[in-house]
From TrEMBL:
Matching Gene3D superfamilies: 1.20.1280.50, Ribonuclease Inhibitor
Signal peptide stretch: none
Protein's name according to its UniProt entry: F-box domain-containing protein
GO BP of this protein: SCF-dependent proteasomal ubiquitin-dependent protein catabolic process
Region (Disordered): 1-52
PANTHER family assigned to the protein according to its UniProt record, in alphabetical order: F-BOX_LRR-REPEAT PROTEIN 7 (PTHR13318:SF50), PARTNER OF PAIRED, ISOFORM B-RELATED (PTHR13318)
TM region(s), chain numbering: none
Amino acid sequence: MLASCLDSSTRTLSTPSPGLILPSKSSSLSSPALSSNGHETNSSSSSSAPAETVAVIHPQPGTHTRSRQSKTHHYAPIDLLPDHTLLQIFSHLSTNQLCRCARVCRRWYNLAWDPRLWSTIQLTGELLHADRAIRVLTHRLCQDTPNICLTLETVVVNGCKRLTDRGLHVVAQCCPELRRLEVAGCYNISNEAVFEVVSRCPNLEHLNLSGCSKVTCISLTQEASLQLSPLHGQQISIHYLDMTDCFSLEDEGLRTIASHCPRLTHLYLRRCTRLTDEALRHLALHCPSVRELSLSDCRLVGDFGLREVARLEGCLRYLSVAHCTRITDVGMRYVARYCPRLRYLNARGCEGLTDHGLSHLARSCPRLKSLDVGKCPLVSDSGLEQLAMYCQGLRRVSLRACESVTGRGLKALAANCCELQLLNVQDCEVSPEALRFVRRHCRRCVIEHTNPAFY
């Protein structure tokens, strides 16, 4: 535990501390307050818009002339807490809150900037000058080890629209021990900055680039590639990669990602609408350890692509092909045959899926826990009866807008799948009597429905 291992003699001494959020044009009359999530709120009612935010530096508390009023020390109750207890409290605070605590007094300053509290930096807010905030924070955390921050392992800057390549360049240069980077929604990020981060941070395992529409692939910089030995190759250690809404990603980009990131286990490519079946061939060839794969709304992916996905064989546990309208029973048979350990399948909106495909899935994937076949009009009671017979461990089933499903299929599910926790039958022609049957046999099941007669 952080508190128990702290040695108060190793505290960081007098160095300036950054206050992350302050108005760019300070006023002696009013100053905006800082919310816990990193947004700025203006206490003055006369201001029509929040002030622009910047990262600034504040001096260490207690360095000015002491008060002349009274020499008697009046301690607040919190001042009586030992250092290790305060550190335990500080360990639960956000980045902004820690910076504010560092401005209270000299003791809190020393505790708040203890390096062991700074394994994570988390910044939020559209108005935040993320580039400057990152630069100031990393500079402060590099005081004991010039130009390198050895404690920082996680940087989360989701939703900071002002983050640019400059901010990521600072992270790449100062944080060689980085393991997790999240920049979701930061659409000003480009390939160049991402390349530098993955090249300079060899321990990076988790990378979230969702919404970074300028990113088209992930690779090492040319300099980093030349420094690697032939035995090491051009491998990047990323295990988790989210490129949801990276609209510019194409087959060639995914081929580059697959060849450089062979250790991928979690890959999310939702709404990467330019990807085709050919891209999945490279993925199966270079990344055999993928356990979770999302191709939702990749409308150019079809049965051939699922055949390539099936080459992942025993590793695949989670698969989402929602709204991939080119997928039919043919592709589903490949998945069912070669991926027997599948736990989660989202095939919502795959209108070519029928009871035959569902039957193959049920017989070959008995460990299935969650299934979404909503808006699949060709799925009927026959397919549900096969599921009930072979997949008795089902916990979540969505049949929303499945027009051919009636009470018969629901009764089969309820009678055999006792662990059912969620059943979605919205916009289905199901009688109240069938829903009551489900409630009787699966007491813990939440039923989502649109039948006004059932309550």
